[in-house]
Design goal:
It is a single chain. The chain has 245 residues and is mainly β. The chain has 2 domains: 148 residues, Jelly Rolls (Sandwich), CATH 2.60.120.200; 74 residues, no CATH class. It is built from 2 helices and 17 strands. The strands form 4 sheets. It has a 6-stranded antiparallel β-sheet. Strands 6-5-4-3-11 form a 5-stranded antiparallel β-sheet, with no helix packed on it. The longest helix has 6 residues. It starts with a strand and ends with a strand.
Length: 245
């Protein structure tokens, strides 16, 4: 299809920081790809190249951050020729594409949730989307409803389930004064801990624990944006170990 105007909208939520949300391409060098990269939303668009290949039409726009928080986010892409409005969670960004063409010419299928392997380096380095989407609308077509009723022709619907599974993890929010204290295991000679965290603050104490029988202690903190582990052992000559990353 060859379009002068496009309106694409959908909602998504995911705990993955990478993944192709949708993709389409054509033989004239046209393509449109919406994807997550490092938990940011990236729209790549090219309305084609001229025969000499001298007009570089590739345009890339990035918006948002921390979109892998497993909350619903809404996207609206409105295109009229080279003028694009990209709206993420009601925050609109206006831009104009590079190149000299106004029409988006897509010869092949549009794919949602990933892109087909084409043998190009760009296709095999990209991850498919893992998460939930709803209210997918492409130029007036309700894609979600058509997929559910199996009315898409041709279509290659993989492992889709029409429900959204919630993650089993339970997040805990800490303010500047709160903390969580749990009992230790005095009979264990192994100390093991793992967790995910997210913060805007460059400094803060993440974990602190004293060893039994006054053998020392361990602390994990953030210092100027770096995670540091401090282990104090009282019975050893070299009694302090510091690791940062």
């Amino acid at each position: 299809m060859k379009t002068l105007k496009d309106v694409i909208s959908l909602k998504f939520k995911t705990s993955e920081s990478e993944g192709v949300i949708f993709h389409g391409e054509g033989q004239q060098g046209d393509y449109i790809t919406l994807e997550l990269k490092k938990a940011k939303l990236v729209l790549n668009l090219n309305l084609g190249i001229n025969q000499l290949g001298s007009i570089f039409g590739h345009t890339s726009v990035t918006t948002g951050s921390l979109l892998d928080d497993h909350h619903w986010h809404s996207i609206i892409i409105e295109r009229h020729g080279r003028n694009i409005n990209l709206t993420l969670d009601r925050h609109m960004q206006h831009f104009r594409t590079n190149g000299e063409f106004d029409y988006l010419d897509l010869d092949y299928e549009i794919t949602f949730g990933g892109m087909p392997f084409s043998g190009k380096p760009s296709s095999n380095s990209r991850k498919n989307f893992k998460g939930c989407m709803e209210s997918i609308n492409y130029n007036g077509n309700n894609i979600t409803d058509l997929a559910k009723r199996k009315k898409l022709e041709p279509s290659n619907v993989g492992n889709l389930s029409f429900s959204c599974v919630e993650p089993h993890t339970v997040p805990v929010f800490f303010n500047a004064t709160s903390y969580l204290e749990v009992p230790g295991r005095p009979s264990q000679d192994l100390f093991s801990v793992s967790f995910f965290f997210r913060t805007w603050n460059p400094n803060g104490l993440l974990l602190s624990s004293n060893f039994a029988d006054d053998l020392g202690n361990v602390e994990i903190d953030i210092n100027e944006g770096k995670v540091s582990v401090h282990i104090n052992v009282t019975q050893v000559k070299k009694n302090r170990i510091d690791i940062s990353s």
